[in-house]
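Fill in residues.
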């Protein structure tokens, strides 16, 4: 919670105008073959009153109607496992900010986020939960880096935060790749 309403409004405006840089670390089912990908797809909200929420429908390629919105994501492969479970550790940067964007696009491109109970590969998730302790009920999508700059009271303020990748990620990947994550994020920020 912010202590100054005016400051909270200034920060919220940057989120609304999508002037915030966010990079997520995720584990996807399958082996992402290319080291860098840019996904551009169209998403449409489908209200789900019984579930108290929405489900997103997606199609590959840019939006062609007003009901569908473009969703753009940059993805950098960090590491993939050569043994079971076959998964890929990636850095994902949403260029646009749509509801469930990373989750929906991952599923659409046949690399669902491990542990995703709404858009994931449920059979794969259950099998993984049985094999690895500490992953039950965990979606492997982690907000790693956030940056925004804004003006407040005539001053330019820069905010930047990094949150370490949880240990549960390394349980699935079977090795700690913290340094590789840092390098991948740096390369995305310097593009």
């Amino acid at each position: 919670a912010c202590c100054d309403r005016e400051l909270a409004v200034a920060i919220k405006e940057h989120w609304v105008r999508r002037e915030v840089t966010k990079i997520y670390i995720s584990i996807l089912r399958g082996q992402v073959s290319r080291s860098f990908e840019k996904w551009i797809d169209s998403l449409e909200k489908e209200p789900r009153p019984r579930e108290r929420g929405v489900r997103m429908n997606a199609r590959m390629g840019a939006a062609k109607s007003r009901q569908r919105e473009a969703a753009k994501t940059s993805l950098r492969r960090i590491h993939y496992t050569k043994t079971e479970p076959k998964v890929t550790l990636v850095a994902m940067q949403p260029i646009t900010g749509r509801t469930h964007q990373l989750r929906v696009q991952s599923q659409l491109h046949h690399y669902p986020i491990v542990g995703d109970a709404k858009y994931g590969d449920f059979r794969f998730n259950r099998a993984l939960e049985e094999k690895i302790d500490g992953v039950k009920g965990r979606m492997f999508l982690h907000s790693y880096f956030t940056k925004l700059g804004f003006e407040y009271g005539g001053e330019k303020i820069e905010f930047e935060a990094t949150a370490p990748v949880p240990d549960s990620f390394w349980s699935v990947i079977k090795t700690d790749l913290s340094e590789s994550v840092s390098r991948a994020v740096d390369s995305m920020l310097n593009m």
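Helices lie at 5-16, 101-108, 122-131, 167-173, 178-189.
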